[in-house]
Amino acid sequence: MMPLCSRVRTKRIVISPTRSSEKMSQQLSYRSIMGLPEYKNFEFDDNWIFYTVCAMIGYSILPIFIFLRIAFLFFTKKKKIQKTGLRMEILHSFLLMQFSNILLVIADFLMFRIPYTTIFTQFCASENPQSLLKFIVFFNFAAAYSSQLFTVLFCALRVAILFSVSQKTSEKIIRIVPFIIVTFGCLAALPHFSTDAFCMQMPEPMIYGSVLIISQFHASNKSMVYFNLVIYLIVTVTIAFLNILMVWRVRKKGSGGTLSTRSATQNAKIEKTLTGTMIILLFPMIASLLISMGEILRSSYFSYILLLRPFFLDARVHIVTCYFYLTHPIFRQIPHSSSLPVFSRATL
User: Fold this and answer.
1) pLDDT grade for 16, boundaries at 50, 70 and 90
2) Could you tell me if residue 65 is inside a domain?
3) Is the separation of the CB atoms in 259 and 336 below 8 Å?
4) Which residue among 139, 143, 217, 263 is the one 20 to 30 A from 103 at the CA level?
5) Where do transmembrane segments lie in this chain (predicted)?
């Protein structure tokens, strides 16, 4: 019997947009493509997902460049940053949070977005590269867990400093806690190495050949889905609570009025940046929580929800980085001025 792909080519029909390919996609939805002849003979063709992913790569370049700019200033202009009144622990935790988020975006491209384009389909079905697939799944979950906890660390440090936690205590936290977070993230993701990984065909609106990479441990272990939901729920509730504490403390301190007009204005700008950053972080976390709930509920619209998932993740990474850089006064002062006004550390 002639393979499906051969029959389709003899009719000169492009696989991805045809009704037959849509029917095939539906028949094989949520199934492994490993070793299947129709996927081993699959041929990549340009499609709307491919161009969408290319656009995502394009708009990610500038925010990553901005992140590198912030990191460069952190390592080369520490004394000048300290003179502005911004606590180095806050900037340090922000960089750790955004670095882990960038790693998560990279992992998301490897596990979801690039496989969706069908460019990886034939290789995955034919070669069954287990080491690569397992590493991608492990990398994704380790980055996901770490980024969640680094977000909590940033928000918690921000609130702790508002409540006048000593600099010695906050510096100790930023030295010890990141190691604990990375260790937890790696250990929590390690079980994905215990079983094989595979490429799974996605249903509509994905096209025939659009796959995602997943481990058998995750696919067959429902407790893993609940574990992820619990993590997202705890992190989201914690960040929401920290936001409430932050707003209450900022308003309370704002009524003091003990600083000079200039210092008060600068402090207000810094407060606005840090407050806005925390609030922006909350919305993508809520979206991630809802997506995790959709996976458990087996919603018929789950594949549509997955299409929106990358945009929420990118918002958490790129919008936060750009907002922090463009609104915080220190990034306008440091490159242009060698003498910086000293602001109050108490509120920052």
Assistant:
1) very low
2) no
3) no
4) 217
5) 48-75, 95-116, 136-161, 173-193, 225-248, 273-292
